[in-house]
# Entry
Amino acid sequence: MKLFKALTGIAGAIALTTGSAFADDLRWKMPVAFATNLPGLGSPGAWVAENLTTASDGSLQVRVYEPGKLVPPFDILQSVSDGKVEAGYTWIGYDQGKVPAIPLFAAVPFGMKPWAYTAWYYYGGGHEMLQEVYANKGFDVHAQLCGIIGPETAGWYSEPIETLEDYKGLKIRFAGLGGKVLEELGASVTMMPGGELYQALEKGTIDATEFSMPAIDQLLGFDQVVKYNLFPGWHQQFTAQYMLINKDQWNKTTDAQKALVEASCTAATTLGLAEGEYKNGAVLAGFQEKGVQADQIPREVLQELKEVTDKVMEQESAKDADFKRVYESQNEFLETYKIWDERAYVPTDL
# Structure
């Protein structure tokens, strides 16, 4: 009996590290949609992979593949679902053509601030809805919120945007639901990965682009090609990234390994937001000496964009039951959150 108790204690200690004394070691390949040197956007994926390997004591080893090295950025969801790779790290809004409700978990025009989104995701049923949305469209993945950043810029332009008429006929790279809004305004919207945008701007393949926040856009060199940068990022007040894990692989993990994935991704979400908030102010302050004109969209123009956005959201809700259900859930949360948001925070000018 003493020997049994001793062995049980040892097994329990091992289980705390590996999840089970008899668990198989897991080796996951994880292609990422963003270069891991991009702060807040790509960096959390690399951090999570390293942390999972270290914290699991090697029972769960994750190897990161930079964009395009193993799987094209826009093919990550399908590759994970099909089991071609065990995991992937991406902005899931790229898959709105396959899963119409997915952009609501990625970036919503005139949507929630990052911390409000995480409140809804963790406590308002968002995480559970996301699993259901994927399953309803036949994708075998487990999705875990694994990074978030604050507002993007509203894009980079060779000419100033002063009215909504200026979008008509514009060839622009614009992602997610915001792209649908600009299509309503007559823009020619295209999608391409971030690594292709500098060349596309330089060659005139596109007239304008949005991609991310100032700390990232500067690294991609947009300010070297065009000089008008618009704010605020009405189309993406938050940008959320996820770790997608093949469902069979997820089911193979022990409870301890699952807990490590959840904890690591939650930590990465905090770190990603913190990194962006820390770096963006200094980058934006330095734009002027580079000849960049950072313009604010007039409130009346923002109001017009909001009206078009509301129309697009109604259209998307009418076409897809999951979209309608998730959008209504987010709006229900916002009804009470706005009371807190408007009263609790000191104005920035104070």
Notes: The chain has twelve helices and eleven strands.
